[in-house]
Design a protein that fits this description.
Length: 281
């Protein structure tokens, strides 16, 4: 039988990995991006960097940058209370990291903070989770340890979702259309080998024949080893799948997520038309 501690760890690890994947490749420009006036962020101080903060914040609350949000996540995970409110003591190696002043340092701070939180969470017994936290938790004295663990996980999950959304906003505000550039002759297969597969991922089916005609390879996969044929088969886009097969699509290539070939994608995503067609080729 799975223990409550293990269930909490599994949820924590899932939420953490989702966040960590979403911040991979973060740049300083994104980290400090302020889309509006009056954002809260992190700023240089006399001894490093400091995050904007106030006991009574403005109303409505300011928009917070990725720098502020990531710093906040790191702070809440490694805060002393994530040990003491459970009746434990922080380890000597647990001092809080400095407020990160760059994207690189921010990712290091996140890794450091999560390692602390996970170790503390894994050390909790059922008694720790069942016991009221007591006076140290102030107004939450009567709440048990499990409720506090769930609170920290809620913080990780919802702030992690905010971080991903802000990255999406940043990308969208600076979006470039590589497909238009390719069709205009400004982008070549040597510049962007996987563009045809990326067009399939974007479901821009109408431009795939044009890209193939310009020399973009039908078997060049995305970063997840997904080819255009996988995507056409999995979405049931039969006309495009026929075109790809007629132009040399390799149906035996496997992707990284499902380790499945093109026929496997048609089957997994329950696409009868592409399954029937693939049975004939």
């Amino acid at each position: 039988m799975t223990t409550l501690t293990q269930n909490l760890l599994d949820l924590s690890d899932f939420a953490w990995q989702r966040l960590r994947d979403r911040v991979e490749g973060l740049t300083d420009a994104e980290y400090f991006w302020e889309p509006f006036d009056g954002c809260w962020s992190v700023h240089k101080s006399h001894d490093g960097y400091a995050a904007d903060w106030a006991w009574i914040p403005p109303a409505p609350p300011p928009f917070t940058t990725l720098a502020w949000r990531i710093t906040h996540i790191a702070d809440l995970l490694q805060a002393e209370r994530t040990a003491t409110w459970f009746g434990h003591e922080p380890a000597a190696t647990d001092p809080a990291a400095a407020v990160p002043g760059s994207a690189e340092h921010a990712l290091q701070a996140l890794d450091h903070a999560y390692a602390i939180w996970r170790r503390r969470l894994a050390a909790l017994s059922q008694e720790d989770l069942d016991r009221p936290m007591g006076e140290i938790a102030g107004p939450y004295a009567d709440n048990d340890g499990a409720s506090f663990a769930l609170h920290i996980l809620d913080e990780l999950i919802h702030h992690g979702a905010e971080v991903g959304t802000v990255r999406d906003f940043y990308r969208g505000a600076r979006a470039e259309d590589p497909f238009a550039a390719a069709l205009a002759g400004e982008l070549t297969p040597a510049d962007h080998p996987a563009l045809l597969a990326e067009a399939a991922a974007a479901q821009r089916w109408e431009i795939i024949p044009q890209l193939a005609g310009l020399g973009f390879a039908v078997n060049e996969p995305t970063a997840d080893n997904v080819t255009a044929a996988h995507l056409a088969a999995g979405t049931g886009t039969l006309d495009t799948l026929r075109f790809l097969v007629e132009n040399g699509a390799d149906l035996s290539l496997t992707d990284s997520r499902f380790n499945a070939d093109v026929r496997g994608w048609a089957q997994w995503f329950k696409q009868p038309d592409t399954q029937e067609y693939l049975a004939t080729v």
